[in-house]
Write a structure and sequence with these properties.
The protein is mostly helical and 136 residues long. It folds into 2 domains: 80 residues, no CATH class; 51 residues. 62% of the residues lie in helices and 0% in strands. Helix 1 crosses helix 2, helix 1 crosses helix 3 and helix 5 runs antiparallel to helix 6. The chain starts with 7 loop residues before the first helix and ends in a 7-residue tail after the last helix.
Length: 136
């Protein structure tokens, strides 16, 4: 059963509206509940202009402020913590350690053993292709 006793269709529609508001709104670094609250509380944001075209494309002529208000009630009951920004320091530190270890390995291969092997090139691809590398 969904929070507030909503049907699955209504609940999923509200959550999709929340994702839409988060994607189109200027507060995309916040979690969904805070994003929706900020959009509704900011007088300079015209909610109808922001979300109206997408809702009309989906076949709805409802004023977007009404479902966004309902969404704030639903989101209070749904876990919504976004922890991805809390881990940035860990990503930066561990990516730095990874790059440093790779560079030490490459240095030792080049100047100590005088031979760079195929697995070193694979490690280069793995280091640069790592998702953590893109957080730097």
């Amino acid at each position: 059963m969904n929070p507030l006793g909503l049907s699955d269709h209504d609940f999923n529609g509200l959550i999709q509206l929340g994702f839409l508001a988060q994607a189109l709104g200027p507060f995309h670094n916040l979690n969904m509940l805070d994003t929706v609250k900020a959009i509704l509380a900011t007088p300079s944001i015209n909610v109808t202009e922001l979300l109206g075209p997408s809702l009309r494309a989906g076949g709805s002529n409802v004023d977007p402020a009404l479902p966004l208000g309902a969404l704030t009630l639903v989101l209070k009951e749904v876990p919504h913590d976004n922890l991805s920004f809390d881990n940035v320091s860990g990503y930066v530190i561990l990516t730095g350690v990874t790059v440093a270890m790779f560079l030490l390995r490459l240095y030792s291969r080049k100047f100590v053993t005088k031979r760079i092997r195929p697995e070193d090139w694979v490690m280069l691809v793995a280091t640069v292709g790592s998702p953590d590398f893109f957080y730097m």
